[in-house]
Write a structure and sequence with these properties.
By secondary structure, the protein is an alpha+beta fold. It folds into two domains: about 20-180, Trna Endonuclease, Chain: A, domain 1; about 185-350, no CATH class. The chain contains seven helices and 20 strands. It has helices at about 25-35, 40-60, 105-110, 140-145, 165-175, 200, 225-240, and strands spanning about 20, 70-75, 80-85, 85-95, 100-105, 115-125, 130-135, 145, 150-155, 185, 205-210, 250-255, 260-270, 280-285, 295-300, 305-310, 320-330, 335-340, 345, 350. It has a six-stranded mixed β-sheet. It has a five-stranded antiparallel β-sheet with strand order 11-12-13-14-17. A hairpin with a 5-residue loop joins strand 18 and strand 19. Helix 1 packs antiparallel against helix 2 (about 40-60).
Amino acid sequence: MNYAVDPYFDFVDLSPDDIELSPTQVDAAIQASQSVDHPTQQWQAYLNLLAAEAVRQWLGDRVPDQNLRTSSTDATIGTQIEIAGFKLNILALGSVTESSLALPTDWVQSPSLAAHFYLVVEVLEDLELARIYGFLSRDRILAQSSLLPRTHCTLDLDTCDRDLDNLLLYLRCLDPHTIPLPQPPINVAAWLQNRVDAIANELAWTLLPLFDPNRGSLAPGMRSSGTQLNEILQQIQQNSAPINNTAYSAFQDIAPNQATLRLYAATWTETPPEDASEWNLILILGTPSGENLPDRTHFQIRDDNEILLEKITESPCHEPYLYVHVIGELHESFTVELAIADSPSVTLPPFVFNP
């Protein structure tokens, strides 16, 4: 990732937190950056590698009693370090000349890449020095960033905390759970093998039988969860696009405000999953009893870029369920947010399809 910066220093004031880079570290970064395939990315990879070495050295000196490990490295984007239960993402710049920088959205939103804190590191490679310009927590980034379509978010460097003693204090005293990270997604592709992935199992999702478009209706007192969903899917099929009879489904009960809602999810592909380029997902919000939804039930579904459906039931409500049918490419995810009346909303982990 190339960050657009231009040198502006006529002179450099050294500070106590400047980190000297040894010739060995510089040579190792040169060698490693040359292995990057695209020559245009080699310079950024070089800065990223030096920044990671500098932060490791600085943390080792300032927090020597804490174990430090590198959890992920992408030479062209940056490095993630874990210490004291916190994840730190390191962003390297040749020099800080602009008021903002573009950060890959995955580094903020992806469960495997997001961090509690983001450190902006200035690498003055001609002086063989690095300095931590400042840091931002993930929640502050989400509050102030401008999301660019699909790939990047914009960080305002003026909002960085320049006092590194604050970072050290947080690492020693703050509970990592105070800064929430995105939950791992629910992989519905596992349902097509009639199994529930670890995250869905942890969240108490229950698998249901295959969709049967020819199954007859039963009396209300005899309906199981699978029968109830099958009848809803039959109604949806009559009013919209056909539902593949290879559709697997599951449900989860959620209680956002004393009342219990039931969220059904059904998924399928039009071709064998290993050959598919798209996947189907139907999300249905109802109640365990099949009765009408509570008044002012809020149901929102969004993809990676925008809200796809947002509906609030009327008062009184005469609808037993709300649903949405979405089709996504394999890289796309869909997120559900629920609420009843003025209760706090509940956001579920995103649904993804990874065969």
